[in-house]
Amino acid sequence: MSQNPTATAGTSATELAGFEGLHNQELLGRYNQSLMGVFGTPQRVLVRGSGCTVWDADGKEYLDLLGGIAVNALGHAHPLLTSVVSSQLATLGHVSNFFTSPSQIALAEKLLGLSAAPAGSKVFFANSGTEALEAAFKLARRHGNNDAGGKRGRILALENAFHGRTMGALALTWKQAYREPFEPLPGGVEHIPAGDADALRAAVDETVAAVFIEPIQGEAGVRGYPAGYLELARELTREAGALLVFDEVQTGVGRTGKWFASEGVLPDAMTLAKGLGGGFPIGAMITFGPDVSTLLGTGQHGTTFGGNPVATAAALATLHTIESQQLLVHVRQTGQAIREALSGLDFVTEVRGEGLLIGFDLAAEAAPALVQRALDAGFIVNSTGPATVRLAPPLIVTAEQVQRFVDALPELYAAATKEEK
Ligand SMILES: *Cc1c(COP(=O)(O)O)cnc(C)c1O
User: Fold this and answer.
1) Does the annotation list 294 as a binding residue?
2) Are 186 and 137 in contact (CB under 8 A)?
3) Which of 25, 44, 115, 315 has the maximum number of C-beta atoms within 10 A of its C-beta?
């Protein structure tokens, strides 16, 4: 491999690649030649971002109302996040888990504080949501194998749940199309109807090792549960001696206007990822209390990259900014304003969600077409189903910015439904 002889500090990856001046079409053609097709053809090639705005390789500007799927909590190129990550990388980038670093310890302490974890609680760092779920799955198995002579073989998850794409997380995920091509998956997982108190009561007993619940089902279209459901899950799992795992990968870290959507109900384990690093890959599992925190013993789990200095520094900068800019209040207020504005549209049949995790249903099954029209009009949003649109903008988005999208919606919807016919 020859190196670009002119590359110096400050050289961009685009320059290193010799890609300057290349536009969407040519780059997407090259993408299709070299990248595995699991994502289909991407919509655009994005080259730059600032706040809630991103630009593609043709210079077109977009308002980003998806935030990398609930990831870019602070928007794009946030000054503090950029500076903390750059300075950490310039100081110490990676050390392996034979060592630790101040930022790793500080982040663990911070997360334990924010989650109101009791004494003896602990944190395990991973690099993604699915890895955080794998850790929780192993935790559940250890609990099942420890207790009652190995009789706790069952793990419960909810219908329509999404927990990730690796084998353990996939076993917890509901969608058959994701699962079936990869069977056999780790056994023992059963799915029960989401939000159904009677189904939960009937399923949770002494043979259950753990119950996995997203406090709001994100990929299912931003769907919560009847009031008291999480509390009931807590009560039933406690009585049965099963672990309660809240998957807050999408809902955590301020997304819903609270640090965690499950606030007020303490689980045995909580998984985090998406928004935690403000765009830098990091996942985490928090275990609550000493018993569950010692289930995975020395040598029983691990990762090379997990908890590295740069990722944990990114998360520290993200949490610090959410706190210092009082973003939780902003998220609650902005989310409320958006939901009200959406509810006022006659073709919107239902608006769901909390804070800045919002799902809304259209009268017609035109969501994918609407997403395409929105993109052409300069708005990045996403559909989770034929009639459902999801918004998960940066937590710094303003009500005025989202109003621009709401104002454009009637025309986008009209065009999308015309296209359907
Ligand atoms: C996105 C998501 C995951 C998987 O996270 P990845 O980082 O994509 O592996 C797991 N659980 C929930 C609730 C998610 O939304």
Assistant:
1) no
2) yes
3) 315
Q: Is 44 within any annotated ligand binding site? A: no
pLDDT at 8: 87
In 10 A of CB 3, how many CB atoms?
A: 7
Protein residues with CB under 6 Å of any ligand 1 atom: 128-130, 133, 162-164, 214, 218-219, 247, 249-250, 273-274
For 123, residues 6+ apart whose C-beta sits below 8 A from its C-beta are 107, 108, 111, 112, 284, 285, 286, 287
**Secondary structure E strands in 316-387:** 348-354, 357-362, 379-380, 382-385
Q: CATH assignment of 15-77+326-420?
A: 3.90.1150.10
Mutate to test the pocket of ligand 1, among 163, 217, 253, 255 (most ligand atoms within 8 A of CB): 163
- The ranges assigned to domains in the chain are 15-77+326-420, 82-324
Is 346 annotated for ligand binding? Answer: no
What per-residue confidence (pLDDT) applies to 347? Answer: 98
For position 102, what pLDDT does the model report? 98
Average pLDDT per block of 10 residues along the chain, 421 residues long? 66 94 97 97 97 98 98 98 98 97 98 98 98 98 80 96 98 97 98 98 97 98 98 98 98 98 98 98 98 97 98 98 98 98 98 98 98 98 98 97 98 90 56
Q: Report how far residue 266's alpha carbon sits from residue 6's, in angstroms, rounded to the nearest whole number.
A: 55
- The alpha carbon of 339 and the centre of ligand 1 are apart by a number of angstroms equal to 24
Domain 82-324 CATH (choose: 1.10.630.10, 3.40.640.10, 3.30.70.330, 3.90.550.10): 3.40.640.10
How confident is the model at residue 2, as a pLDDT?
Answer: 46
